[in-house]
Protein: Glucose-1-phosphate adenylyltransferase
Organism: Flavobacterium sandaracinum
Amino acid sequence: MKAKKKNVIAIILGGGQGSRLYPLTESRSKPAVPIGGKYRLVDIPISNCMNSDIYRMFVLTQFNSASLNAHIKNTYNFSIFSHAFVDILAAEQTPDNPTWFQGTADAVRQCMPHFLNHDFDYALILSGDQLYQMDFNDMVEEHIKREADITIATLPVNAKDAPEFGILKTNSESCIESFIEKPAKELLPDWESNVSDQMKSEGKHYLASMGIYIFNRKLLMDIMSNKETKDFGKEIIPQAVGNKKILSYQYEGYWTDIGNIDSFFEANIGLTDDLPKFNLFDNDNKIFTRPRLLPPSKFQKTMIDKSLISEGCILNAKEINRSVIGIRSRIGEGSIIQNCYVMGNDFYQNIDDMNEDLRTGRQLVGIGERCFISNALVDKNCRIGNDVYISGGSHLEDFSNELYAIKDGIVVIKKGAIIPDNYIIK
């Protein structure tokens, strides 16, 4: 039996305050964080849905949602003759729900009246902060074929990674029989599941929940009627195990949870690999984002190696190595950028503004001349002066001030920060 795509809606969870991604989430919600030089995190689940012919999507958020609203409004405009939409549902206080979202399940519960205004048989629930490319067609069709109540996308993991996840144990029919949250290593021998020979050869014997679920409409309505449960991973799924038919849908491709600065940084730098695990150059799995009318990037005397350069950049740098350079970036003469993600800018300075900044001694938007920046994340619209030296690494302790933060050795220049000439972080 083939799933009717019109009977599937997608619910994308925007997450909480995103404190582990601070300072990137200081003024924006987690799904709005720029990734890959020109995209936003929310573009990943939305693109996966669109590539799977699922065109009705809700994005649930409650923190710093202004830039997310603007991005979605300016990006996902479908034909007025279609039923496609991407709607943002921000937390709202009502007589029935006087509080903000208290967890993933509570967010879905509070928004249920909006979902029920639409015809659907299956709800696909996704996270807004994961990097992966998945065709949901197979997952939906397997859910229907097997007559499951709930289907959970699972990822084979090894013994080293298993304690970081909720681990599921399946029977010979790939149905989930038990669940344990972040098991201790000594418990792992009892939690092996049947995986493919390829996964076994890689030492991946355990199935981790990816936080991707399919619920039948009626079951979701029944579960949401219990206002005591607040979270899918911690309450609803464990409570359903043994009481409902829960199918494990194994996914063996690239997947990473963008939960903290370290994983976010590695995911972006990983895009510069010769054969990146996350493939941006795929005809069948396009990543959709806001179409911008930007000029081509311009280079002068710049040596570039293993890097991604977005549109509209003006680069006079000496070297750019293993870095992702975002839209409208400007990097001055003689500068060296290595192992960095430079997010770029939301605007260009005009000549008059630049001349005024030079006259008054204010740093220009972008990165100045003769800078050295390594192992750093430069947020949008920063003004980094001349002769600035930034060298991140494991030798640095965690730290934060009004200009920058250090997390796991990665220096994060805060959005809109002004870094004076000759400033040193090492």
About this structure: The first strand starts at residue 8 and ends at 13.
